[in-house]
Amino acid sequence: MTSRATSQTSQQNEKMTKIPLSRSEVFGELRKELHEDEEFHQSDAHIFIIMGASVRVTDKDAERLSAFFSRNTYISGKYADEDSFSKLDTHIQSLPGGTEANRLFYLALPPTVYHDVSKNIRTCCMSKKGWNRVIVEKPFGHDLQSSEELSAHLSSLFTEDQIYRIDHYLGKEMVQNLMVLRFGNRIFGPIWNRDSIACVVLSFKEPFGTQGRGGYFDDFGIIRDVMQNHLLQMLCLVAMEKPASTSSDDVRDEKVKVLKCIAPVTLSDVVLGQYVGDPEGEGDSKLGYLDDPTVPKGSTQATFTTAVLYVHNERWDGVPFILRCGKALNERKAEVRLQFTDVPGDIFGNQCRRNELVVRVQPNEAVYAKMMSKKPGVYFSPEETELDLTYKSRYKDVKLPDAYERLILDVFCGSQMHFVRSDELREAWRIFTPLLHRIDKEKPKPIPYKYGSRGPTEADDLSKKVGFRYEGTYKWVNPHRL
Questions:
Q1: pTM of this prediction?
Q2: I want to staple 403 with a disulfide (CB 3.0 to 4.6 A). Which of 96, 154, 171, 221 is the partner?
Q3: CB contact set of 162 (below 8 Å; sequence gap of 6+)
Q4: Domain Glucose-6-phosphate dehydrogenase C-terminal: where (predicted)?
């Protein structure tokens, strides 16, 4: 009887592994697991409170918005007013199961009001029986000092396991895939080091400018907005040693070790650019950064930056990590590119290009390796081609969850693996604060580059100088479009 039941179960499991689950089924399974998990099951009710919520939708989504609001309530109040938070707490307790519910607070707010809001949450709105968790959005401060002040303030109110510093890039499918690629495949382990890798390029490109958001952007700039967080997080996942396990602390311990091996960036290792209008372009592309009415006149804020970092440890010593990010460029793209060293003892008369492994984060998620192969035909000529895993081709019916969906689910689960820890944040600011302070003080004039271009040519020169070889003869073709 037992063996028959076991056999039936194994057959059912085998069937399940062969049938891909739909997106709703995946989340259904997760909810089921969470519901049955003893630690999660402290309370049947979970209340998600968004501070600073605003909604903009198109007419076609008006019906969905109405259905969404029919399941939610809105409480108006002032961030610095304790009575407003007492009113919120009274309302939460009036909801079904509210007195025992777990509470998740999402601070979709400017950093200027974090102090008041977090203090009032702690004073007035904490659940007495369920758990309490707070999601904080970037920017986490403006430099090392302000970040430390914010961290100290939050730590005085909440424990580290209650604080979730969200960087949505850590929720993206291909960013999370970096760990599996590295540590789940034997073929990459022996070559993932300074002996085989010539350089690593981490890129974030947007094909649009500030377009009315110049006031916010001018206060922070591209380094604070993208490089110090998104790109540095991806660098950590590329460079870190294998963690002892996939537990949150083990993974984040290894990321911190990487950051501690990186010296502060100097201005000589950086190229700063600012986009100007393209006279021959159309629409917004005719306008430069300084043409945005929300940008202060004569601003020297960079809209493009290339920076070279080095990880001074045994695995990576001497390998440049080239971080590139910018607005108003020629395409939308975020990717990690590992360029390998030249093949020693070349017998093909300099016809071989360097191998590359590329992890495309967005758009069109893909992993592909650029490699040399014999050109078909009678000649013995090598040509560049790729081994390609494009997600839309390989996983046709799989709908990838949005980054925020994954991360908010992680918060409900109590998993902090894909969130930024306080010591990790401190090290990230240590690396960039001296550079940011020098730029703020000296206001170096950024190099102009045309809207829709690849950015300043000086950035390419810097990459070439430190060892990246841009051949420009080969471009990956998305097979989904063929």
A1: 0.84
A2: 171
A3: 131, 132, 133, 134
A4: 179-470
